[in-house]
């Protein structure tokens, strides 16, 4: 790994260690039942599309790996549904918070700190791989995708969400940080890398993702409108529907 990639990964880890995804939506003391309840309510309000793709109930009895557990709202839903779940996160902070959340609910699952680009699992270890809004933060997203496919069993299913380059969120950020900042020459990728969440965040087109996940069968990429698009441009987001949605959801199956 190059020195620049190491530096970027350290920056990404530092960002999320300080501010676990979703923690900004609650003022409750961290690690309390109230904290987790508010995090879960907010996720349901902001991302109501997740259950349609995640299929939590369908994971019962399956070996599931979530890459990037964050505060555990999706991970806990897999565990509650009866999945034999394993979760990984780049940050120790997230791992500790999710373990605490499991303890509060009297649930059991494996959660460990790990790098998505170097998963500590043998080939073909899981029936299902799930990752929502995580891999676009990795310095080498392509490598992380290859790792996700590597640990998926033949016949197993994958569901990964990454950000869409052509969406109302990215266009709005370009207007704010390029056009209105007097730097209209800045591209969408440059703006996202410098201003969207952790340093180096990337976004993709559906065509790029079909190529990236070509190692799977029956690859489907759905672009999905989100509440974040509506926050950015208001009613205009509803007029364009999913065509300029912020989420690109990839689903596929490893050949049996």
In short:
The protein is an alpha/beta fold.
Description:
The structure is a single chain. The protein is an alpha/beta fold. It has a single domain (3-163, 206-227, 245-253), classed as 3-Layer(aba) Sandwich (Rossmann fold). It contains eleven helices and seven strands.
Q: pLDDT average, as an integer?
A: 95
Number of strands: 7
The best one-word shape is globular
Strand composition percent: 15-25%
State the strand order across the main sheet.
3-2-1-4-5-7-6
Derived from helix and strand composition plus strand pairing, the structural class reads: alpha/beta
Q: What is the name of the CATH topology?
A: Rossmann fold
Please identify, by name, the CATH architecture. 3-Layer(aba) Sandwich
Straight-line N-to-C gap: 32 Å
How many discrete domains?
Answer: 1
Structure annotation, total helices: 11
Element order: H for helix, E for strand: HHHEHEHEEHEHHHEHHE
Helical residue percent band: 40-55%
CATH uppermost class: Alpha Beta
> Strand count, sense and closure of the main sheet?
7 strands, mixed
Give Rg in angstroms. Answer: 18 Å
Q: How would you name the CATH homologous superfamily?
A: Vaccinia Virus protein VP39
List low-confidence stretches: none
């Amino acid at each position: 790994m190059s020195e620049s990639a190491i530096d970027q990964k350290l920056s990404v880890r530092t960002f999320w260690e300080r501010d676990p995804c979703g923690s900004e939506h609650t003022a409750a003391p961290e690690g309390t039942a109230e904290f987790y309840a508010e995090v879960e309510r907010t996720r349901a309000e902001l991302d109501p599309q997740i259950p349609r793709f995640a299929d939590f109930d369908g994971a019962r009895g399956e070996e599931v790996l979530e890459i990037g557990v964050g505060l555990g709202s999706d991970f806990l839903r897999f565990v509650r549904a009866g999945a034999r779940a394993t979760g990984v996160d780049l940050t120790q902070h997230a791992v500790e918070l999710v373990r605490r959340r499991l303890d509060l609910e009297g649930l059991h699952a494996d959660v460990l700190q790990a790098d998505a680009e170097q998963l500590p699992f043998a080939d073909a270890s899981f029936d299902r791989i799930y990752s929502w809004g995580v891999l676009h933060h990795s310095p080498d997203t392509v490598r992380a995708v290859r790792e996700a496919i590597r640990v998926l069993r033949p016949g197993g299913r994958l569901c990964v969400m990454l950000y869409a380059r052509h969406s109302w969120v990215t266009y709005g950020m370009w207007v704010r940080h390029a056009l209105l900042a007097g730097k209209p020459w800045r591209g969408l990728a440059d703006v996202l890398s410098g201003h969207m969440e952790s340093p180096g965040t990337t976004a993709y087109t559906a065509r790029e993702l079909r190529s990236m996940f070509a190692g799977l069968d029956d690859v489907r990429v759905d672009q999905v409108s989100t509440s974040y698009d509506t926050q950015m441009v208001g009613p205009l987001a509803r007029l364009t529907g999913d065509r300029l949605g912020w989420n690109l959801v990839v689903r596929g199956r490893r050949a049996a």
